[in-house]
Write a structure and sequence with these properties.
The protein has eight helices and 19 strands. By secondary structure, the chain is of the alpha/beta class. It has two domains: 256 residues, QueA-like (3-Layer(aba) Sandwich); 95 residues, QueA-like (Thrombin, subunit H, Beta Barrel). The chain has a nine-stranded mixed β-sheet with strand order 3-2-19-17-15-4-13-14-16. A hairpin with a 2-residue loop joins strand 9 and strand 10.
Length: 368
């Protein structure tokens, strides 16, 4: 694979590798995505807009330059307190793993980040991972982020990103720390084509976190805890599709994480509401809800790649890797895509679970 270096969300030559439930692969144009869907399917996407979550400034005690990348919060509505990853002097033009370390950070340290002022409340099990508490009112914090913050960015895109480069066409609440970039594939013509074909479209709001910290110990903790909200309309779509035999199609890994977290909490049912996703999905995870995922192409070892191991066996993933390399698929957020159906062996297991859960008294629209 090669790195996608231009911030173009829907290039005309975007490719899509399709992997069916038997592991068979096919190369398609990404513009053909809707043709892979069936009447009765439910497509779910993340409608989070991306925050300008990269903040440059100065570490008070040392006077040294610092960059702070906001990385998480406990709820979608909180704005005073964030978890954050700190870097030393520099910016996105230097590879993340080559960035210098920040000055030594301690609880109580003050940070000056443009118009924003904040205090390190405590360290979070790593010298560069902190809980940051901002001064001021919510309005002052939002204004400071809007004026001074910029999108989190990596060196494979050499030009500075504008905030709108990171917003999907369905972007709504500004809660994501990096773009839920699988949603770049969507546009309003595509949504209209889904509707004509009897394919339902729903959204969740999930605070998509950062994809890399440049530190192997920190990267091993990804994804961090992420709040999400499932609206009543989407919960109803999912339940109806389960009853009627439609598939649940996730646009991106954040949607999988949210739906599967809810299902694990509520015995295979996805109710509406806001919660905090804390799980890591990998080869040993049991997928209960999502039948297929549309995702970007991901490098082996990343948390996104590990999630795909819950959908297909490793031998199928190895074949996918060979296809992606042979046909020069582009990776990272502005790259090409894969559409992967859950393997038949896992589908049979999940189908038995679904039949059990939907046949009992736990299936009730009143539970929403």
């Amino acid at each position: 694979m090669i790195a996608a270096s231009l911030p173009v969300q829907r290039p005309s030559n975007a490719k899509l590798l399709v992997v069916d439930s038997r592991g068979k692969t096919a190369n398609r144009a990404r513009s053909e995505f809707v043709s892979l869907l069936r009447p009765g399917d439910v497509v779910v996407a993340n409608d989070a807009a991306t925050l300008p979550a990269s903040l440059s400034g100065r570490h008070g005690p040392s006077g040294r330059r610092i960059e702070v990348r906001l990385a998480g919060r406990d709820s979608l509505d909180g704005v005073r307190q964030f978890s954050a990853v700190a870097f030393g002097e520099g910016d996105f033009r230097t590879r993340t793993e080559d960035r210098p370390a920040p000055p030594t950070l301690n609880s109580g340290d003050r940070l000056e980040l443009g118009p924003l002022r904040g205090t390190i409340a405590r360290l979070l099990n790593h010298p560069r991972f902190v809980l940051l508490r901002f001064d001021g009112s919510a309005q002052e914090i939002w204004e400071g982020l809007a004026r001074h913050g910029r999108p989190i960015q990596y060196a494979h895109v050499p030009v500075p990103l504008a905030l709108w480069d990171t917003w999907t066409p369905i972007a709504g609440p500004p809660v994501a720390f990096e773009a839920p970039s699988a949603g770049f594939v969507l546009d309003w013509n595509m949504l209209a084509a889904m509707s004509v074909r009897g394919i339902r479209f729903g959204t969740i709001t999930h605070a998509a976190g950062i994809s890399s910290t440049g530190d192997s110990e920190l990267d091993a903790l990804l994804p961090f805890d992420e709040p999400y909200r499932i609206p009543v309309s989407t919960a109803l779509m999912i339940r109806r599709a389960q009853v009627q035999g439609g598939r649940i199609i996730a646009i991106g890994t954040t949607v999988v994480r949210a739906l599967e977290h809810a299902a694990a909490m509520f015995d295979g049912v996805v109710p509406a509401g806001e919660r905090l996703a804390t799980q890591r999905i990998g080869a040993c995870s049991r997928i209960r809800i999502v039948d297929a995922i549309l995702s970007g192409t991901h490098e082996r070892g990343s948390s996104h790649y590990e999630m795909l191991r819950a959908f297909v066996p490793d031998k199928t993933l190895a074949r996918i890797d060979r296809e992606l390399n042979a046909y020069e698929y582009r990776t990272h957020e502005f790259g090409d895509s894969v559409f992967i159906e859950r393997a038949e062996s896992q589908r049979r297991s999940a189908g038995q679970q679904r039949e059990f859960f939907l046949s009992g008294n736990t299936f009730s629209y009143g539970a929403l």
